[in-house]
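Subject: Interface between my chains keeps coming out wrong

I've been trying for a while to get a sensible model of this assembly. When I model each chain on its own everything looks fine, but I need the whole thing in one frame so I can look at the contacts. Pasting all components below, labels as-is. Any help appreciated, I'm running out of ideas.
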Amino acid sequence: MSDNAIPMPSRRALLGATGRTLSVSALAMVTGSGIAGISSAHAADPSQDVDILNAAIALEYEGIAAYQIAATSGLLQPAVVEIGVTFQGHHKGHRDILVKAVETLGGTPVTEKPLEEYAAGLNVASLRNQEDVLRLALRLEQGAANAYLGLIPSLGVNFHQVAGQMAGDEAFHAAILANALGEPIPKAALIFG
Amino acid sequence: MKFRLSIALCILAAFFFGTAFAGPAQQSSPQDARRMPTGDSVVPDTVSQALLERGEKLYVRRCGGCHSLDRNRTGPRHRGVYGRKAGSVADFRYSKALQLLNLIWTAETLDRWLENPAAVARGTSMGFRLGKADERKAVIAYLKSLSDTAERQGKN
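Reply #2:
Try treating it as a single job with all components included. I did that and got this:
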């Protein structure tokens, strides 16, 4: 990537370059934070945590499906597919962590719906080109980053850090996508939440 | 002397045009709206339009991870939710908590819900909170405007 990130590089240059630098896995960091301490230490209602975490799992499944649909749509350049698959890997990582957390709390994790249901929910039939796909992905990632931040006050304290980490991953995705789309950098602080 | 005068004119011109151009932008933020002239020179619709626009933007950014207007996703679809009974989108699988919630979504109930959903319906699967009262107000105004439109179109 160009060493000065502020002036927008061309979309193609940006996408080509980031595709190669994204291989560092944020997952290792996220999983490293560990589920072990999560189970019983907090006083908040664990069954309420299960319900909320299950909604987060549903959101991650939708994200995984969205990148799947995008990657197989034939609308994306190969370098963009590569980025999408990497982002999808992060969402799978989130799902695995959340599923484990729900199980640790004694709950039943929600399961994946058929791909067509996600496709209908996201109205993917309206996508015509790469830019449409990137805009949808950006909206979903922004929404996901904000969703995690808004869940924090409802979650038991042991989930605060991991929810923050997931929000961070989604914000990272959103930044890459916004840059690829040539969106201006937000001027005000507190971009999310 | 002449040189000074032209500088002064330039400054004056910049000031004049600067304020002239700032005019339309004043309607875009609530802070600026407060600085707008008061009395009957204010078009009431302009202010509520700004609120609706803010509400829509907030809706897309904050709720859009889980909700859409016309399609069920992680959360139920929202068009027409204002004025509707809680838990009544037929093809959405609500939690028990929301199925049993005997409540109509109004400005007041939505405000409490968005501030802390579990305080309204213990056991709900919506954990997302919108902590700022002014943001809740904007989002609720936006949802209400969609119900108004749905009614006018005979959809509700």
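Reply #3:
Confirming on my end. Chain B touches chain A at residues 60-66, 68, 71-75, 95, 116-118, 122-131 (CB under 8 Å).
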